[in-house]
Design brief:
The structure holds two protein chains of two kinds. Helices cover 79% and strands 0% of the residues of chain A. Chain A has helices spanning 2-24, 38-49, 56-70, 76-90, 92-97, 100-125, 132-162. In chain A, helix 1 (2-24) runs antiparallel to helix 2, helix 3 runs antiparallel to helix 4 and helix 4 (76-90) runs antiparallel to helix 6. Chain B is an alpha+beta fold. A six-stranded antiparallel barrel of chain B has the order 1-2-5-4-3-12. A six-stranded antiparallel beta barrel of chain B has the order 6-7-8-11-10-9. In chain B, strand 3 and strand 4 form a beta hairpin. The longest helix of chain B has 38 residues, at 76-113. The N and C termini of chain B lie far apart (82 Å). Classes of the chains: A mainly alpha, B alpha+beta. Chains A and B meet through helix 1, helix 3, helix 4, helix 6 and helix 7 of A and helix 1 and helix 2 of B.
Protein backbone atom coordinates (compact mmCIF):
# COMPACT_ATOMS: atom_id res chain seq x y z
CA UNK A 1 0.00 0.00 0.00
CA UNK A 2 2.63 2.49 1.03
CA UNK A 3 4.82 1.55 -1.91
CA UNK A 4 1.86 2.10 -4.15
CA UNK A 5 1.29 5.52 -2.63
CA UNK A 6 4.91 6.59 -2.99
CA UNK A 7 5.05 5.50 -6.59
CA UNK A 8 1.92 7.50 -7.21
CA UNK A 9 3.26 10.62 -5.52
CA UNK A 10 6.71 10.51 -7.04
CA UNK A 11 5.80 11.96 -10.48
CA UNK A 12 4.03 14.87 -8.79
CA UNK A 13 6.98 15.52 -6.49
CA UNK A 14 9.36 15.45 -9.44
CA UNK A 15 7.28 18.03 -11.31
CA UNK A 16 7.23 20.22 -8.20
CA UNK A 17 11.01 20.00 -7.77
CA UNK A 18 11.53 20.89 -11.44
CA UNK A 19 9.05 23.72 -10.97
CA UNK A 20 11.04 25.06 -8.02
CA UNK A 21 14.24 24.87 -10.07
CA UNK A 22 12.60 26.85 -12.88
CA UNK A 23 11.47 29.34 -10.27
CA UNK A 24 14.93 30.07 -8.93
CA UNK A 25 16.66 29.80 -12.33
CA UNK A 26 18.40 33.02 -13.32
CA UNK A 27 16.81 35.08 -16.10
CA UNK A 28 18.01 38.29 -17.74
CA UNK A 29 16.83 41.40 -15.94
CA UNK A 30 14.53 42.45 -18.80
CA UNK A 31 12.33 39.34 -18.79
CA UNK A 32 12.64 38.51 -15.11
CA UNK A 33 9.27 40.04 -14.28
CA UNK A 34 7.57 37.70 -16.78
CA UNK A 35 8.66 34.47 -15.13
CA UNK A 36 5.47 32.40 -14.78
CA UNK A 37 4.41 31.15 -11.33
CA UNK A 38 5.44 27.58 -12.06
CA UNK A 39 4.52 26.21 -8.67
CA UNK A 40 1.11 27.89 -8.65
CA UNK A 41 0.33 26.40 -12.07
CA UNK A 42 1.51 22.95 -10.97
CA UNK A 43 -0.45 23.06 -7.74
CA UNK A 44 -3.61 24.12 -9.59
CA UNK A 45 -3.24 21.16 -11.94
CA UNK A 46 -2.54 18.57 -9.27
CA UNK A 47 -5.22 19.89 -6.91
CA UNK A 48 -7.69 19.65 -9.76
CA UNK A 49 -6.71 16.12 -10.71
CA UNK A 50 -5.85 14.55 -7.34
CA UNK A 51 -7.56 16.71 -4.72
CA UNK A 52 -7.36 14.07 -2.02
CA UNK A 53 -3.58 13.84 -2.03
CA UNK A 54 -2.72 17.38 -3.15
CA UNK A 55 -4.82 19.84 -1.31
CA UNK A 56 -4.41 22.90 0.89
CA UNK A 57 -1.88 21.23 3.22
CA UNK A 58 0.63 20.41 0.48
CA UNK A 59 0.02 23.82 -1.10
CA UNK A 60 0.93 25.44 2.19
CA UNK A 61 4.16 23.45 2.49
CA UNK A 62 5.11 24.30 -1.12
CA UNK A 63 4.33 27.95 -0.36
CA UNK A 64 6.60 27.96 2.70
CA UNK A 65 9.45 26.49 0.64
CA UNK A 66 8.80 29.20 -1.95
CA UNK A 67 8.90 31.88 0.75
CA UNK A 68 12.24 30.63 2.02
CA UNK A 69 13.83 30.41 -1.42
CA UNK A 70 12.46 33.84 -2.35
CA UNK A 71 13.32 35.40 0.99
CA UNK A 72 9.85 36.91 1.23
CA UNK A 73 7.76 37.15 4.37
CA UNK A 74 7.36 33.65 5.77
CA UNK A 75 3.76 32.67 5.04
CA UNK A 76 3.12 35.11 2.19
CA UNK A 77 3.28 32.69 -0.73
CA UNK A 78 1.97 29.94 1.55
CA UNK A 79 -1.21 31.89 2.19
CA UNK A 80 -1.71 32.90 -1.45
CA UNK A 81 -1.06 29.40 -2.78
CA UNK A 82 -3.26 27.87 -0.11
CA UNK A 83 -6.08 30.18 -1.12
CA UNK A 84 -6.09 29.39 -4.83
CA UNK A 85 -5.68 25.67 -4.18
CA UNK A 86 -8.64 25.84 -1.82
CA UNK A 87 -10.76 27.34 -4.61
CA UNK A 88 -9.45 24.74 -7.06
CA UNK A 89 -10.27 21.82 -4.76
CA UNK A 90 -13.71 23.26 -4.03
CA UNK A 91 -14.54 23.40 -7.74
CA UNK A 92 -12.35 20.58 -9.03
CA UNK A 93 -15.27 18.58 -10.44
CA UNK A 94 -16.49 21.60 -12.34
CA UNK A 95 -13.04 22.49 -13.57
CA UNK A 96 -12.43 18.99 -14.88
CA UNK A 97 -15.30 19.22 -17.34
CA UNK A 98 -14.38 22.70 -18.54
CA UNK A 99 -13.09 22.90 -22.11
CA UNK A 100 -9.50 24.04 -22.29
CA UNK A 101 -10.37 27.63 -23.23
CA UNK A 102 -12.67 28.04 -20.25
CA UNK A 103 -10.15 26.34 -17.99
CA UNK A 104 -7.49 28.79 -19.17
CA UNK A 105 -9.79 31.66 -18.26
CA UNK A 106 -10.26 30.13 -14.81
CA UNK A 107 -6.51 29.74 -14.40
CA UNK A 108 -6.11 33.38 -15.38
CA UNK A 109 -8.53 34.35 -12.63
CA UNK A 110 -6.77 32.12 -10.09
CA UNK A 111 -3.35 33.53 -10.96
CA UNK A 112 -4.74 37.04 -10.71
CA UNK A 113 -6.11 36.28 -7.24
CA UNK A 114 -2.75 34.76 -6.29
CA UNK A 115 -0.84 37.86 -7.39
CA UNK A 116 -3.40 40.13 -5.79
CA UNK A 117 -2.94 38.41 -2.43
CA UNK A 118 0.83 38.74 -2.76
CA UNK A 119 0.40 42.40 -3.71
CA UNK A 120 -1.88 42.96 -0.78
CA UNK A 121 0.45 41.38 1.75
CA UNK A 122 3.37 43.32 0.22
CA UNK A 123 1.34 46.47 0.69
CA UNK A 124 0.69 45.72 4.36
CA UNK A 125 4.34 44.82 4.94
CA UNK A 126 5.57 47.88 3.04
CA UNK A 127 7.35 46.14 0.16
CA UNK A 128 7.38 48.24 -3.02
CA UNK A 129 7.58 46.54 -6.42
CA UNK A 130 6.88 47.60 -10.01
CA UNK A 131 3.47 46.66 -11.43
CA UNK A 132 4.92 44.28 -14.03
CA UNK A 133 6.18 42.07 -11.21
CA UNK A 134 2.51 41.28 -10.56
CA UNK A 135 0.99 41.34 -14.04
CA UNK A 136 3.81 39.65 -15.91
CA UNK A 137 3.46 36.22 -14.29
CA UNK A 138 -0.34 36.21 -14.70
CA UNK A 139 -0.10 36.80 -18.45
CA UNK A 140 2.75 34.38 -19.15
CA UNK A 141 1.20 31.80 -16.81
CA UNK A 142 -2.11 31.87 -18.66
CA UNK A 143 -0.42 31.66 -22.06
CA UNK A 144 1.62 28.72 -20.83
CA UNK A 145 -1.25 26.86 -19.22
CA UNK A 146 -2.61 24.92 -22.26
CA UNK A 147 0.84 23.46 -23.00
CA UNK A 148 1.52 22.70 -19.36
CA UNK A 149 -1.92 21.13 -19.07
CA UNK A 150 -1.32 18.77 -21.98
CA UNK A 151 2.15 17.90 -20.75
CA UNK A 152 1.00 17.19 -17.19
CA UNK A 153 -1.96 15.15 -18.41
CA UNK A 154 0.56 13.00 -20.24
CA UNK A 155 2.64 12.69 -17.08
CA UNK A 156 -0.42 11.72 -15.09
CA UNK A 157 -1.57 9.15 -17.64
CA UNK A 158 1.87 7.56 -17.82
CA UNK A 159 2.23 7.50 -14.04
CA UNK A 160 -1.10 5.73 -13.84
CA UNK A 161 -0.49 3.15 -16.52
CA UNK A 162 2.95 2.49 -15.06
CA UNK A 163 1.62 0.87 -11.88
CA UNK B 1 -9.04 6.20 -17.22
CA UNK B 2 -12.42 6.17 -15.57
CA UNK B 3 -11.77 2.91 -13.78
CA UNK B 4 -8.34 3.89 -12.55
CA UNK B 5 -9.38 7.20 -11.03
CA UNK B 6 -10.19 5.49 -7.76
CA UNK B 7 -10.71 7.59 -4.70
CA UNK B 8 -9.78 10.88 -6.21
CA UNK B 9 -12.81 11.37 -8.35
CA UNK B 10 -15.29 10.48 -5.66
CA UNK B 11 -17.91 13.20 -5.99
CA UNK B 12 -18.21 13.47 -2.22
CA UNK B 13 -16.68 16.56 -0.65
CA UNK B 14 -13.12 16.46 0.58
CA UNK B 15 -13.47 16.08 4.36
CA UNK B 16 -12.86 19.13 6.52
CA UNK B 17 -11.44 21.14 3.62
CA UNK B 18 -12.78 24.45 4.82
CA UNK B 19 -11.57 23.83 8.36
CA UNK B 20 -8.07 22.88 7.27
CA UNK B 21 -7.95 25.90 4.98
CA UNK B 22 -9.01 28.23 7.76
CA UNK B 23 -6.41 26.77 10.14
CA UNK B 24 -3.64 27.18 7.55
CA UNK B 25 -4.67 30.76 6.83
CA UNK B 26 -4.48 31.59 10.51
CA UNK B 27 -1.08 29.91 10.82
CA UNK B 28 0.16 31.86 7.77
CA UNK B 29 -1.00 35.16 9.20
CA UNK B 30 0.62 34.36 12.54
CA UNK B 31 3.88 33.40 10.80
CA UNK B 32 3.86 36.59 8.74
CA UNK B 33 3.21 38.67 11.82
CA UNK B 34 6.08 37.07 13.72
CA UNK B 35 8.38 37.28 10.72
CA UNK B 36 7.61 40.93 10.05
CA UNK B 37 7.83 42.21 13.60
CA UNK B 38 10.81 40.35 14.95
CA UNK B 39 13.27 37.86 13.62
CA UNK B 40 11.85 34.98 15.65
CA UNK B 41 11.79 32.65 12.71
CA UNK B 42 15.40 32.71 11.54
CA UNK B 43 15.87 29.14 12.76
CA UNK B 44 12.98 27.85 10.66
CA UNK B 45 14.18 29.81 7.66
CA UNK B 46 17.65 28.40 8.02
CA UNK B 47 16.33 24.85 8.32
CA UNK B 48 14.23 25.04 5.18
CA UNK B 49 16.95 27.03 3.44
CA UNK B 50 19.38 24.17 4.01
CA UNK B 51 16.87 21.83 2.37
CA UNK B 52 16.65 24.11 -0.67
CA UNK B 53 20.46 24.41 -0.89
CA UNK B 54 20.98 21.28 -3.08
CA UNK B 55 18.41 22.67 -5.51
CA UNK B 56 20.26 25.96 -5.67
CA UNK B 57 23.44 24.04 -6.39
CA UNK B 58 21.69 22.01 -9.09
CA UNK B 59 20.40 25.16 -10.78
CA UNK B 60 23.76 26.83 -10.47
CA UNK B 61 25.76 23.83 -11.76
CA UNK B 62 24.98 24.08 -15.52
CA UNK B 63 25.86 27.78 -15.54
CA UNK B 64 29.10 27.07 -13.72
CA UNK B 65 29.88 24.18 -16.06
CA UNK B 66 29.31 26.46 -19.05
CA UNK B 67 31.67 29.01 -17.59
CA UNK B 68 34.26 26.34 -16.85
CA UNK B 69 33.96 24.96 -20.39
CA UNK B 70 34.41 28.46 -21.73
CA UNK B 71 37.49 28.95 -19.58
CA UNK B 72 39.10 25.66 -20.46
CA UNK B 73 38.59 25.94 -24.21
CA UNK B 74 39.92 29.46 -24.59
CA UNK B 75 42.54 29.53 -27.27
CA UNK B 76 46.19 30.22 -26.52
CA UNK B 77 45.98 33.41 -28.49
CA UNK B 78 43.15 34.79 -26.41
CA UNK B 79 44.91 33.78 -23.21
CA UNK B 80 48.04 35.62 -24.28
CA UNK B 81 46.01 38.71 -25.08
CA UNK B 82 44.28 38.50 -21.72
CA UNK B 83 47.59 38.00 -19.96
CA UNK B 84 49.03 41.06 -21.65
CA UNK B 85 46.03 43.10 -20.68
CA UNK B 86 46.23 41.92 -17.08
CA UNK B 87 49.95 42.71 -16.91
CA UNK B 88 49.33 46.24 -18.10
CA UNK B 89 46.48 46.61 -15.64
CA UNK B 90 48.59 45.32 -12.79
CA UNK B 91 51.36 47.75 -13.57
CA UNK B 92 48.92 50.64 -13.47
CA UNK B 93 47.28 49.44 -10.26
CA UNK B 94 50.63 48.91 -8.60
CA UNK B 95 51.76 52.38 -9.53
CA UNK B 96 48.60 53.77 -8.03
CA UNK B 97 49.00 51.60 -4.94
CA UNK B 98 52.50 52.95 -4.30
CA UNK B 99 51.07 56.39 -3.98
CA UNK B 100 48.25 55.04 -1.87
CA UNK B 101 50.62 53.50 0.70
CA UNK B 102 52.42 56.78 1.06
CA UNK B 103 49.15 58.63 1.38
CA UNK B 104 47.85 56.17 3.90
CA UNK B 105 50.94 56.59 6.04
CA UNK B 106 50.64 60.33 5.79
CA UNK B 107 46.98 60.17 6.67
CA UNK B 108 47.70 58.05 9.74
CA UNK B 109 50.39 60.53 10.84
CA UNK B 110 48.09 63.49 10.42
CA UNK B 111 45.29 61.73 12.24
CA UNK B 112 47.67 60.91 15.07
CA UNK B 113 48.62 64.58 15.22
CA UNK B 114 44.98 65.52 15.40
CA UNK B 115 44.46 62.84 18.03
CA UNK B 116 41.73 61.26 15.94
CA UNK B 117 41.07 57.59 15.71
CA UNK B 118 42.90 55.99 12.85
CA UNK B 119 40.97 53.86 10.50
CA UNK B 120 41.48 50.15 10.76
CA UNK B 121 41.85 48.29 7.52
CA UNK B 122 38.85 46.22 6.61
CA UNK B 123 39.10 42.52 6.21
CA UNK B 124 37.66 41.21 2.95
CA UNK B 125 36.80 37.88 1.48
CA UNK B 126 35.76 36.97 -2.03
CA UNK B 127 32.42 35.24 -2.56
CA UNK B 128 30.90 33.95 -5.72
CA UNK B 129 27.37 34.81 -6.76
CA UNK B 130 25.25 31.75 -7.32
CA UNK B 131 23.27 31.75 -10.52
CA UNK B 132 19.94 31.89 -8.80
CA UNK B 133 17.42 34.64 -8.92
CA UNK B 134 15.30 34.99 -5.90
CA UNK B 135 12.63 37.41 -4.84
CA UNK B 136 10.70 38.93 -7.76
CA UNK B 137 9.93 42.10 -5.80
CA UNK B 138 13.46 42.97 -4.84
CA UNK B 139 16.85 43.34 -6.45
CA UNK B 140 18.83 40.71 -4.68
CA UNK B 141 21.38 37.99 -5.17
CA UNK B 142 22.56 34.82 -3.48
CA UNK B 143 26.21 34.32 -2.57
CA UNK B 144 27.91 31.02 -1.91
CA UNK B 145 29.15 31.59 1.63
CA UNK B 146 27.04 31.83 4.75
CA UNK B 147 27.14 31.94 8.53
CA UNK B 148 29.61 29.03 8.50
CA UNK B 149 32.19 31.44 7.11
CA UNK B 150 31.27 34.23 9.49
CA UNK B 151 28.88 36.15 7.25
CA UNK B 152 26.44 38.24 9.27
CA UNK B 153 23.26 40.19 8.55
CA UNK B 154 23.90 43.73 7.39
CA UNK B 155 27.39 42.99 6.09
CA UNK B 156 28.58 45.20 3.25
CA UNK B 157 29.27 43.74 -0.20
CA UNK B 158 31.43 45.47 -2.80
CA UNK B 159 32.90 44.56 -6.16
CA UNK B 160 35.97 45.92 -7.91
CA UNK B 161 34.23 49.17 -8.86
CA UNK B 162 32.03 50.01 -5.91
CA UNK B 163 29.39 49.07 -3.39
CA UNK B 164 27.03 46.29 -4.49
CA UNK B 165 24.72 45.85 -1.53
CA UNK B 166 24.40 44.27 1.87
CA UNK B 167 23.54 40.88 3.33
CA UNK B 168 19.95 40.63 4.50
CA UNK B 169 19.60 36.98 5.32
CA UNK B 170 22.32 34.56 6.32
CA UNK B 171 21.87 30.87 5.72
CA UNK B 172 24.39 28.26 6.77
CA UNK B 173 26.10 27.91 3.40
CA UNK B 174 24.48 30.67 1.37
CA UNK B 175 23.41 34.22 2.09
CA UNK B 176 20.98 36.57 0.43
CA UNK B 177 21.92 40.14 -0.22
CA UNK B 178 19.95 43.17 -1.33
CA UNK B 179 21.40 45.41 -4.03
CA UNK B 180 21.73 49.16 -3.54
CA UNK B 181 19.37 49.64 -6.50
CA UNK B 182 16.50 47.96 -4.64
CA UNK B 183 13.55 50.28 -4.12
CA UNK B 184 13.67 49.63 -0.36
CA UNK B 185 17.37 50.29 0.06
CA UNK B 186 18.98 53.51 1.16
CA UNK B 187 22.57 54.17 2.13
CA UNK B 188 24.37 57.15 3.60
CA UNK B 189 26.84 58.67 1.14
CA UNK B 190 28.96 61.76 0.81
CA UNK B 191 30.16 63.67 -2.21
CA UNK B 192 33.82 62.90 -2.59
CA UNK B 193 34.63 66.40 -3.85
CA UNK B 194 33.33 68.38 -0.88
CA UNK B 195 32.11 65.98 1.79
CA UNK B 196 28.44 66.90 1.34
CA UNK B 197 26.47 64.19 3.11
CA UNK B 198 23.19 62.76 1.86
CA UNK B 199 21.32 59.52 1.32
CA UNK B 200 21.27 57.47 -1.88
CA UNK B 201 18.00 55.63 -2.34
CA UNK B 202 17.43 52.73 -4.74
CA UNK B 203 14.81 53.18 -7.44
CA UNK B 204 14.05 49.64 -8.53
CA UNK B 205 15.94 50.34 -11.77
CA UNK B 206 19.21 48.44 -11.84
CA UNK B 207 21.19 51.41 -13.19
CA UNK B 208 19.80 54.31 -11.20
CA UNK B 209 19.91 55.71 -7.68
CA UNK B 210 18.05 58.75 -6.40
CA UNK B 211 19.34 61.44 -4.06
CA UNK B 212 16.04 62.86 -2.89
CA UNK B 213 17.16 64.92 0.10
CA UNK B 214 19.37 67.55 -1.48
CA UNK B 215 18.17 71.18 -1.34
CA UNK B 216 18.17 73.25 -4.50
CA UNK B 217 21.26 75.20 -3.49
CA UNK B 218 23.35 72.13 -2.63
CA UNK B 219 26.81 72.08 -4.13
CA UNK B 220 26.48 69.05 -6.37
CA UNK B 221 26.90 68.60 -10.11
CA UNK B 222 26.91 65.87 -12.71
CA UNK B 223 30.06 63.79 -12.59
CA UNK B 224 30.50 63.99 -8.82
CA UNK B 225 31.60 60.75 -7.22
CA UNK B 226 29.57 59.55 -4.24
CA UNK B 227 31.34 57.44 -1.62
CA UNK B 228 30.00 55.74 1.48
CA UNK B 229 30.14 58.03 4.47
CA UNK B 230 30.15 55.26 7.03
CA UNK B 231 27.50 57.02 9.07
CA UNK B 232 24.87 54.31 9.01
CA UNK B 233 27.29 51.89 10.57
CA UNK B 234 26.56 49.15 8.03
CA UNK B 235 28.99 50.26 5.34
CA UNK B 236 32.60 51.18 6.06
CA UNK B 237 33.48 54.68 4.89
CA UNK B 238 35.20 55.53 1.64
CA UNK B 239 33.93 53.00 -0.88
CA UNK B 240 32.68 54.43 -4.19
CA UNK B 241 28.93 54.09 -4.65
CA UNK B 242 27.78 56.00 -7.71
CA UNK B 243 28.47 58.86 -10.06
CA UNK B 244 25.95 61.69 -10.30
CA UNK B 245 24.58 61.82 -13.82
CA UNK B 246 21.95 64.52 -13.68
CA UNK B 247 20.99 67.41 -11.42
CA UNK B 248 17.69 69.16 -12.10
CA UNK B 249 16.87 72.19 -9.99
CA UNK B 250 13.23 73.18 -10.07
CA UNK B 251 12.77 76.59 -8.41
CA UNK B 252 9.37 75.84 -6.86
CA UNK B 253 10.45 72.57 -5.32
CA UNK B 254 12.33 72.41 -2.02
CA UNK B 255 14.61 69.61 -3.16
CA UNK B 256 16.67 69.16 -6.30
CA UNK B 257 16.07 66.15 -8.52
CA UNK B 258 19.39 64.29 -8.50
CA UNK B 259 20.03 60.88 -10.02
CA UNK B 260 23.20 58.82 -10.03
CA UNK B 261 24.53 55.71 -11.76
CA UNK B 262 25.96 52.96 -9.53
CA UNK B 263 29.69 52.44 -10.01
CA UNK B 264 29.46 48.69 -9.54
CA UNK B 265 28.14 46.64 -12.45
CA UNK B 266 25.15 45.45 -10.45
CA UNK B 267 23.69 43.14 -13.08
CA UNK B 268 26.95 41.71 -14.33
CA UNK B 269 28.96 40.86 -11.25
CA UNK B 270 29.94 37.25 -10.75
CA UNK B 271 32.35 37.67 -7.87
CA UNK B 272 31.96 40.05 -4.99
CA UNK B 273 33.88 40.94 -1.85
CA UNK B 274 32.42 40.81 1.62
CA UNK B 275 33.81 43.28 4.09
CA UNK B 276 34.32 42.57 7.75
CA UNK B 277 34.60 46.05 9.11
CA UNK B 278 35.79 45.87 12.65
CA UNK B 279 34.43 48.35 15.14
CA UNK B 280 37.37 50.75 15.28
CA UNK B 281 36.60 52.27 18.64
CA UNK B 282 36.70 49.05 20.59
CA UNK B 283 39.87 47.97 18.87
CA UNK B 284 41.76 51.15 19.57
CA UNK B 285 40.97 51.09 23.23
CA UNK B 286 42.03 47.49 23.47
CA UNK B 287 45.35 48.33 21.84
CA UNK B 288 46.26 51.11 24.17
Amino acid sequence: MSRDRTSRRLPVIITLVVGLMLTIMPLPESIRAFRPDWLALLMIFWAMQLPRTWSVGSAWVVGIVLDVSYGTLLGQHALALCFIVFITVRFHLLMRVFPLSQLSATVFALLAIYQFLLFWINGVAGVVAPATAYWGPVITGTLLWPFLFMFLSGVRYRARSGD
Amino acid sequence: MVASRGNDSNPARIPALGLRFLALVLVSILLMYLDHRENHLDGIRRGIGAAVYPLRLAVDAPVRLWGWLGDSTTSRNELELELGRLHAERLLTNARLQRLTALEAENARLRALLDARSRVRDEVRVAEIMAVNANPYEHNLVIDIGSRDGVYDGQAIVDADGVVGQVIETGVMTAQAVLISDADHALPVEVNRNGLRTIAVGTGEIDQLDLPFLPNNADIRAGDLLVTSGLGGAFPAGYPVAVVNSVTRIPQEPFADVTATPSAALDQVREVMLIWSRPTVVREEADE
